[in-house]
Fold this sequence. Notes:
The chain is an alpha/beta fold. It is about 40% helix and about 20% strand. It is built from 10 helices and 10 strands. About 30% of the residues are buried.
Amino acid sequence: MPLATIQNTVSATPEGILHRLDWKVIRRxxxxxxxxxxxxFYGAGTDFTDLREYQPLDDIRHIDWNVTARMNSPYVRQYVxxxxxxxxxxxxxxxxxxxxxxxxxxxxxxxxxVASLARLLTRNGNRVGAILYNSRLDKTIPPRxxxxxxxxxxxxxxxxxxxxxxxxxxxxxxxxAGLYTLKRRSLVFLIxxxxxxxxxxxxxxxxxxxxxxxxxxxxDSRELELPDAGLIVVEDSETEEQLYVDTSNPEFxxxxxxxxxxxxxxxxxxxxxxxxxxxxxxTEEDLVNAIxxxxxxRKRRRI
Length: 303
């Protein structure tokens, strides 16, 4: 979705967006989570120090399976807490992210999520950076702390960039960029709708092994529905290819819903195999509720 229509309003400026989020999201989160953001960022800000044999009550997520296989006995990685967290946002800004209501597209929800999480992190002295992908690698924003860094992230996300026509999203490029750029263990947020060419699973697994990775899938309910509107023209948001389809045809509707079901199953299997923390957020969901839900689920997985 073009962002030009919202850029001319005060509320859509970086300062306006951050002010709105400070009042409507951050303040509410402070009350609901009572400042306990470690439940959301648990495991980040740690450096690998040594290996030792597994002991009862050890976190099984720290098992080093390569060493375990060689030694025929379970070994776990030991970490030391690092006072400061370095967080990276790997952001899919491809054309399909523009889908959704004009005032609440997936891309606008992405901006709110990034700004809110970055604000929570930087106000405690942590650093945040980002890699932007728009059907090709677009920009890398080096990690820094402070309010101005959050404003820079919002400003760059609001900018319209030339979107190459006829290309499709390949998350492998974004994930490989993360592998190349991140030199030390970091907290990584991968935010996408996961409409992508295949074969991104291996770099995702490698990135998760070296970092604390949280994958967030943004979706809109209209992507899963097929209205019975007769003969219509549909357009691929990325390749701009157009096709006439008969939405009243029962067989076409059946194949459409079967395709959606298989795609969802494949996505769940691939993310589970990679071992990442995975959350889905709808364009219709309240952002505060979504972040609290993420924090609660991550806390439960830790226990």
